[in-house]
Specification:
With 260 residues, this protein is an alpha/beta fold. Helices cover 29% and strands 19% of the residues. The chain has two domains: 104 residues, Spore Coat Polysaccharide Biosynthesis Protein SpsA, Chain A; 126 residues, Spore Coat Polysaccharide Biosynthesis Protein SpsA, Chain A (Alpha-Beta Complex), CATH 3.90.550.10. The protein has nine helices and nine strands.
Length: 260
């Protein structure tokens, strides 16, 4: 009797890109803040280095000052056009020169405490399901204020872990509210974490997809992907990361770092 053929293992080459823009609104020049002795950008770079799956990592800079700061701590940097409309476009510009890479991971430059395991997770999501073009993460919401905060993007997904919708509004909407909805053992609400993995060929096409009505209405780029009929895989993690958007965020990060 012939033996069954061995199961094929999906292998891919992945690469992390950290888009870094000098200008920022709520916290000016935040990526170069260095009250801990390291720039915020260096903290993010070093956090990303703890991921095991990527074959490499670079910072996609829009300004010589960013590039110089990266070279000081020995990081890999690639200059990108200052005219890029978004971080996604900046990652795509780098991806055009990475012919041997299958999966690109977009790590925000203001995520200094991002676990390397989260980067590995979004890569694994794409490796496990070849029919999805993007992967991202979500974490349970247990706080009503966060659920109702428009700056906190919510996501709902199906039983196969594919995104159904992203919104700034509370989704799903409970017809009858009671606080137990926030503490249910099986979570009812999920916060979207802005970490993305893309298949390279899709990423290079993404910028050419026309903006869609829901994307414009909610100002959420990932809705363009769904509206054009593509699948986004969503993985659940229980340790949410904290991005640095405001002076208070940065002060809290400095306090946590100094006390370690």
């Amino acid at each position: 009797m012939s033996q069954a053929a061995p199961k094929l293992r999906i292998r891919s080459t992945s690469y992390v890109v950290i888009p870094a823009r000098l200008a920022s609104t709520r916290l000016p020049r935040k990526l170069l803040l260095a009250e801990t002795g390291k720039t915020l950008l260096q903290h993010t770079y070093e956090a990303a280095l703890t991921a095991k799956k990527p074959s490499g990592i670079c910072i996609a800079a829009d300004h010589d000052e960013i590039a110089s700061a990266v070279r000081v701590f020995g990081g890999e940097v690639r200059m990108t056009s200052p005219d890029c409309a978004s971080g996604t476009d900046r990652v795509a510009e780098v991806a055009r020169h990475l012919d041997d890479v299958d999966i690109l991971v977009n790590v925000q430059g203001d995520e200094p405490e991002l676990p390397g395991e989260s980067i590995d997770r979004v890569i694994e999501l794409l490796e496990a399901d070849p029919t999805t073009v993007m992967a991202t993460l979500a974490t349970p919401i247990r706080d009503k204020e966060r659920l109702n905060d428009p700056s906190c993007v919510k996501v709902v997904f199906n039983e196969q872990g594919r995104a159904l919708y992203f919104s700034r509004s509370p989704i799903p909407h409970a017809r009858t509210w009671h606080d137990d909805l926030l503490t249910a053992e099986v979570p009812n609400f999920y916060l979207h974490i802005g970490l993305y993995a893309y298949r390279r060929d899709f990423l290079l096409r993404l910028a050419d997809l026309p903006r869609t009505p829901l994307e414009k209405l909610e100002n959420l780029e990932q809705l363009r992907v769904l509206e054009h009929g593509h699948a986004i895989a969503v993985g659940v993690v229980h340790e949410p990361t904290v991005g640095i958007d405001t002076p208070d965020d940065y002060r809290a990060f400095v306090s946590r770092t100094v006390s370690r």
